[in-house]
Amino acid sequence: MDSRDPFVLRHLAEALPETWWIDSDPLEPDPHPALIGDDGADLCIVGAGFTGLWTALLAKEADPDRDVVILEQHETGYGASGRNGGFCSASLTHGYMNGLRRYPDEISTILRLGVENLDAIEEAIARYGIECGWERTGELSVATEPWQLTELIEAARLRNNAGDPVEILDETETRARVNSPTYLGALYDHDGTALVDPARLVWGLEKACLSLGVRIFEHSPVEYLEDVEDSVRVHTPYGAVTAPRVALATNVYPSLIRRARKYVVPVYDYVLATEPLSPEQMAAIGWAGREGLSDAGNQFHYYRLTADNSILWGGYDAVYRFRGKVREEYERRPETSARLAAQFLETFPQLRGIRFTHAWAGAIDTCSRFAPFWGTSHRGKVAYVMGYTGLGVASTRFGAQVMLDLLAGDDTERTRLKMVRRRPLPFPPEPFRWLFIRLTQWSIARADRRQGRRNLWLRLLDALGLGFDS
User: Fold this and answer.
1) CA 307 to CA 21: how far, in whole Å?
2) What is the residue-wise DSSP string for 255-310?
């Protein structure tokens, strides 16, 4: 279906350029003041998204007397934490196959830690009474081309052999769960994914942190870090916090540790949300299990039902801007919204005529291994984690735990992992970075058109350990 077709564009006529999750939500908390003057703390955290809030919560749970301060340049959950699709996955490596390729010797440990992490998130949501629409529905990875089904069958074999139980569904079984004429089969992970309202999860974590005594300052961008004897002084425009330990949870925004910036590029991901489906529309597509869905192409969509039976539909285009700028104006890209709308109508032709009510975007902190990495600086007084590459709703809690381990100097099962001890390969400087990313994206799109066959460039990246299938 042509994304320029006026019929397609009419579906977008009333779409607001706002994030669906935070549009007039009554649970949005009151703002916090900016930092004015000098302050001190035992732990200073930079960034009030998922990573920063989990770091604060875990730190206070471990030591209720620890004085914890969070500095946020905008508002709590302003960045990717409040803009994503709400897929809360047990995977710590952006999928089993990516983890297996990179860490074959420790994948079983990573799998177990990922499940324990997801279970702990579910327990924390219950313990603190967080109203975030938690649904542990599992996820369907659907094949729309024969080569995708072949790859899913092989992935299922490997996962089942590793003790990660999944199921292959044929076309009839898949369409009995969610009815699309494009589906040829699916890999069904029964309990490895939960769906949440990410903004409400952020706000719930914020409320939990405040209940334990965490102090949060908003509109307080950190300008630089100053090494002062046994502490670090964290400077903002109108004040500073001095703390013996600092955790950086800035993710897609330029790191305060300059040498870490070469490992991450911001890639914009675009999302649509429909109006709530009528009972007749729900009957036409099924989806009684409310599973999260993604298709199995190299360029893929992710989609899900929200609490009111709207459909959130995102992915496919991944847009990198020259020099990696993160700007509000990049969150509007009509051509991508139109492409997403056309692809939605191809997937669900029985929903033609439905209105899209929201169209938004967010920047993803992407690294060359497509999974988080860690580091320290200032003689171990500062720790950072970044590079979640779009699958951070759950793995941010694990990232926070590792940061706290590193700051404490603890030798743990987590810190002994190769994925924690090793950094990804850096991206080249501009303009080579832009050319590298554009060539890779062109090659991935070409592979989708050629039954998954990877060209010489992608095979080279695979050989260097830089390859990825999405």
Assistant:
1) 11
2) PSSGGGGGG-EEEEEEEEEEPPPPHHHHHHHB-TT--EEEE-SSS-EEEEE-TTS-
Q: Are residues 168 and 186 in contact, defined by beta-carbon separation less than 8 angstroms?
A: yes
The one-letter amino acid at 76: T
Specify whether the CB–CB gap between 177 and 189 falls below 8 A.
no
List the domain boundaries for the chain: 6-19+134-196+266-364, 31-133+197-264+367-427, 432-463
State the CATH architecture for 31-133+197-264+367-427: 3-Layer(bba) Sandwich (3.50)
CA angle 276–279–282, rounded 5-degree value = 75
Number of neighbours of residue 154 by Cβ within 10 angstroms: 11
Q: What is the distance between the alpha carbons of residues 175 and 2, in angstroms, rounded to a whole number?
A: 25
What local confidence, expressed as pLDDT, does residue 296 receive? 93
If DSSP codes are grouped into helix, strand and coil, which group holds residue 379?
coil
Phi-psi region of 380 (alpha: psi -120 to 50; beta: other; left: phi over 0): left
Give the strand pairing for 37-40 and 239-243: parallel
For helices 456-463 and 432-449, the axis angle rounded to 10 degrees is: 110
Which whole-number Å values give the CA distances from 383 to 7, 339, 364, in the listed order? Answer: 51, 40, 20
| Residue 455 CB contacts under 8 Å (≥ 6 apart), including other chains | 443, 446, 447
Rounded CA separation 248/458 (Å): 33
Among residues 329, 349, 337, the alpha carbon closest in space to that of 183 is found at 349
Query: Which option is the CATH number for 6-19+134-196+266-364: 3.40.30.10, 3.40.50.880, 3.30.9.10, 3.20.20.70?
Result: 3.30.9.10
388 DSSP 8-state letter: -
Q: From residue 194, how far is each of 84, 360, 453 by CA, in Å?
A: 14, 22, 32
Beta bridge partners of 268: 319, 363
- Using only C-alpha atoms, what is the Rg of the chain? 22
Distance CA 247, CA 213 (A): 18
Dihedral sign of CA atoms 355, 188, 204, 206 in order: negative
Segments of 389-465 assigned E as strands? none
Residue type, 281: Q
In single-letter form, the type of residue at position 432 comes to F
Which residues of the chain are modeled with pLDDT < 70? 2, 24-25, 467-470
The amino acid sitting at 276 is P
At 470 the pLDDT is 46
Q: What is the pLDDT of residue 225?
A: 98
Residue in this structure with the two tokens 């007039």, named with its chain if needed: 24
End-to-end CA distance of the chain: 22
Dump strand ranges (E) for 390-460: none
CA distance 398 to 297: 28
